[in-house]
Amino acid sequence: MPVPGRLADVADSPPRPHTGDTVYLSPPDVGPLEESYLIAALRSGWVAPVGPDLQAFEHDVATRVGTGGAVAVNSGTAALHLALLGVGVGPTDVVIVPTLTFVATANAARYIGARPVFVDCDPRTGNVDVDLAADLIRALRARGERVGAIVPVDMFGSCADYGALLPLCAETDVPVVEDAAEALGACHAGRPAGSFGRVGVLSFNGNKIMTTSGGGMLVCDDAALLARARHLATQAREPARHYEHHETGYNYRLSNLLAALGRAQLLRLDQMIARRRHLRDEYAKLFAPVPGVRLVGAQDAESNCWLTVIAVEPQRCGWRADDLARHLAERNIETRPVWKPMHLQPMHAGAESLLTGAAERLFTDGLTLPSGSALTEPQIARVLAAIDEFLSARTGPSLS
Ligand SMILES: *Cc1c(COP(=O)(O)O)cnc(C)c1O
Asked: What angle do CA 160, 142, 148 make, to 5 degrees?
């Protein structure tokens, strides 16, 4: 079969996301396996948002997450939008969203015209504060609001406290849409992330635990919800030979080529998680003797270790998260603050929120460290040495 010349070149040199000697926070981890899946899909002729890799990818992810089915779409954000529509959120509803999250979680509610109401997090994990969420649901109900959904986010790859949250939502009859965009491969009490809500949402963005370069998925047991999402994701096209539409849909389907990439990534998911866990363990060792520094959510053995995050108490350790960030940036090592809370975002100025200050403190005092599974041993050694150098200058030689 004729293959364009450039592909042959690409086949000789697997894609390498790293340029120069910068260590990135969470770069894509792709190699020969992804390349062979992608090229096979291209050669199959299914260069469209439909095809056998798309079907297989949905099946494989649903199997992994333990749900009855899945619908692949072109972003996690699109999946969130369809998930909220799927549980019946309407334009006059409120949607409870953790204030500590990526903006997509709140945007999805806005797309529908619903009003996000923000709730603070547990400072230990960054996940939704369930007691506070309970207070919020009751307060909103008492005022006669319709709570269309709550969207717990499995922050940095650790599941929210579903042991407490699910009974609360069942008792108050609030649908749960699980934003597991960061948490594929994680579990909570042995059950996989993505399987906790009426519907779960995954992301395959370039920085996530596995990637399709961009993509997302709805996962759930409700065949009708999935069929509806699939319909809306394909411009709500009716099954007719001509183009027949009864309502406004979206062009949200994932490309078959990218699904092929995703299938290869899924085969390597456990290996990539193990790599990130190894990095987290190294960070844990390095920071263990440092008073005033802790790893956020690190007690969770079922985390997928997507990002390792430290929280710094400047009064105890004598330096700020920003100081370490600057030290590392000068050495071409990328770090990021944790998500800026939604209630502090100009676009949500004046939004209703129930807060304790936990998310704001994590924003000020938290730092996400290079966590990618594609980091090489020399890169990891460089990051650890740079942190050690920083700590030694402030606290004396570390014990590691
Ligand atoms: C990445 C992410 C999303 C959105 O995913 P995209 O695929 O980038 O649209 C949603 N929620 C959270 C918490 C995320 O981290």
From this structure: 50
Establish if 114 belongs to a structural domain.
Answer: yes
Question: How many structural domains compose the chain?
Answer: 2
297 shares a domain with 208: no
Provide the 8-state DSSP code for 202: E
| pLDDT digit string (tens) for the chain, length 400 residues | 343 334 444 445 555 554 569 999 999 999 999 999 999 999 999 999 999 999 999 999 999 999 999 999 999 999 999 999 999 999 999 999 999 999 999 999 999 999 999 999 999 999 999 999 999 999 999 999 999 999 999 999 999 999 999 999 999 999 999 999 999 999 999 999 999 999 999 999 999 999 999 999 999 999 999 999 999 999 999 999 999 999 999 999 999 999 999 999 999 999 999 999 999 999 999 999 999 999 999 888 999 999 999 999 999 999 999 999 999 999 999 999 999 999 999 999 889 999 999 999 999 999 999 999 999 999 999 999 999 999 999 865 444 4
335 close to 325: Cβ distance less than 8 angstroms: yes
Active site residue 285: no
Whole-angstrom Cα distance, residue 198 to residue 218? 10
Residues contacting ligand 1 via CB (< 6 Å): 75-77, 101-102, 104-105, 153, 179, 181-182, 203, 205, 216
Determine which residue's CA is closest to atom 5 belonging to ligand 1: 76
Q: What burial class does residue 268 get, using C-beta atoms within 10 Å of its C-beta: 0-12 exposed, 13-18 middle, 19+ buried? A: middle
CATH code of the domain covering residue 360: 3.90.1150.10
- Identify the active-site residue in 198, 208, 231, 263: 208
My answer on whether 97 and 208 are in the same domain is yes
β-pairing, 216-220 vs 293-295, is unpaired
CA of 104 to the centre of ligand 1 (A): 6
Residue-number span of the structural domain to which 186 is assigned: 32-267
* Distance from Cα 77 to the centre of ligand 1, integer Å: 6
- Residues 190 and 77 occupy one common structural domain: yes
37 and 104, same domain (yes or no): yes
Which residue, 251, 267, 283, sits at the end of a domain? 267
